[in-house]
Structure formats: structure tokens, C-alpha cells
Amino acid sequence: MNYINLAQIGSIVISLTISGTIFQNLAFRNLQHALAGQGFSAAELRVAVAGTKSLILENGSPLVKELAIKAIVDAMKKVYVATIAAGGTQIICSLFLKREKLFLKPEVSSD
Questions:
Q1: CB-based contact 54:47 (threshold 8 Å)
Q2: 62-94 vs 2-34: helix axis angle to the nearest 10?
């Protein structure tokens, strides 16, 4: 039973790690394309993705803010698509599992 709990917790950690990585990479790439030529460094773009006091989001012009927010939201959308695809894959794979009882009745000792 503990192995099942460990696997469930581990799978949650792995899926969150993958989702976070996808989001950070896509958001950074989207910001690079959206704000090309604006003079922002890679470090400033990473700070904007992280959500910590970003100069881009605090002091940028309304157009820059709009482009940055759109780039970050587009990355979030793609993370949801990956999550839905993973859920669909699990459902399809579960159809091919062998159907059997998982828990057997304990043997009664004759003392």
C-alpha cells in the first residue's frame, strides 16, 4: 500500500516538474519573440516569467505590458493542453490493463 502512495505522490511531483519546465521555456521563448528589439536582457525576461518584481511588467509601456502578458498567457494555455493530453493518454492506456481483483482476502489462521 505504501508503494502505491509513493507512486501517486511521485507522479504528481514529476507532472508538476514537467509542466513547470514547459511553461518557463515557452513563456521565455514567447517573450523573446514578442519583445524583440525592445532592449530587454534575457535575465529581465526570466524575471518576468518568474513573476517577481519585473521591470517589464511594472515600468513598461502599455504596449510592452500587453505583449508580455499575452506571451505569458499563451504559454499557460499550452501547459493546459499538455496536461489534458497526458490525462487522455492515461485513460486510453487504462483500457488495455488486465482486469482482476487487486485485494485478496486475508488467510485465516487456525490457532
A1: yes
A2: 150
- Here the cell at position 78 is 499550452
Single pTM value for the model: 0.71
Read off the DSSP letter of residue 108: P
Query: What CA–CA distance (Å, rounded) separates 9 from 61?
Result: 43
Q: How far apart are CA 95 and CA 101, in angstroms?
A: 16
Average pLDDT over residues 87-103: 86
Q: Please write the tens of the pLDDT for every residue from 24-41.
A: 999 999 999 999 888 888
Contacts of 15 (CB under 8 A, 6+ apart): 83, 86
Angle at 64 between CA 34 and CA 47, to 5 degrees: 75
User: How many C-beta neighbours within 10 Å does residue 41 have?
Assistant: 9
- Residues 85-110, buried b or exposed e (16+ Cβ, 10 A)? eeeeeeeeeeeeeeeeeeeeeeeeee
The maximal CA–CA distance of the chain, rounded, in angstroms, is 83
